[in-house]
Amino acid sequence: MLWAFFISFLCILKTSSSSVDINGENRTIIKPLNSNVTVTSGQKAILTCTFDRINHDLVLLSSHQLIWIRQNHATYDADLILAHNQDSLISDDRLTIQRTDIDYSLIINNVNIDDEGIYVCEVNTQPPQKTSIHLYVQGKIILYMV
């Protein structure tokens, strides 16, 4: 099933719209809401990419394919595709994906130290555009009464 996804995603990339402006220059159409997100272990992390409101093609077309990637995932020693559009591609009940006309979010509930790392949001323009968000996870603060 995963191979079928990769093949279909590559086909979609090949036929996607351009992110080149009328002067022939590439324009940034996706950016992180926050490039660094810090949460405490056990809390919720919300990683959000926003779309350029000026780019009406991207805002209006739901045909654009979006993916969330976890870079250099230690368990797999490779990048891991977490989600395609609003579908989670891994079995982790802590993950929720939300997509609107202006943003794309990966929500991780009950964050733990293993979740710390770089997450990439990518859209299938030509050329593909992506942006990174670094998730930092702090240990829980435990107060002792003496």
Kindly list the characteristics that best describe this protein.
146 residues, mainly beta, Immunoglobulin-like, six-stranded mixed beta sheet, four-stranded antiparallel beta sheet, 10 strands, 12% helix, elongated, disordered N terminus, Ig-like domain-containing protein, Ig-like_dom
Helix/strand structural class: mainly beta
Q: What gyration radius follows from the Cα positions, in whole Å?
A: 17 Å
Number of helices: 2
What characteristic shape results from the CA principal axes?
A: elongated
Strand content: 35-45%
How helical, in percent, are the residues? Answer: 10-25%
Give the total of beta strands. 10
**Total count of domains:** 1
Low-confidence stretches: 1-24
User: Strand-and-helix sequence, N→C?
Assistant: HEEEHEEEEEEE
Topology overview:
Blueprint lengths: L1 H13 L15 E3 L3 E5 L4 E7 L4 H5 L5 E8 L4 E7 L2 E2 L6 E5 L3 E6 L8 E7 L5 E10 L8
Parallel strand pairs: 2-10
Antiparallel strand pairs: 1-3, 3-8, 4-5, 4-9, 5-6, 7-8, 9-10
Protein model, in words:
This protein is mainly beta and 146 residues long. It has a single domain, classed as Immunoglobulins (Immunoglobulin-like, Sandwich). It has helices spanning 2-14, 56-60, and strands spanning 30-32, 36-40, 45-51, 66-73, 78-84, 87-88, 95-99, 103-108, 117-123, 129-138. The strands form two sheets. Strands 2-10-9-4-5-6 form a six-stranded mixed beta sheet, with no helix packed on it. A hairpin with a 3-residue loop joins strand 7 (95-99) and strand 8 (103-108). It is elongated and about 60 Å long.
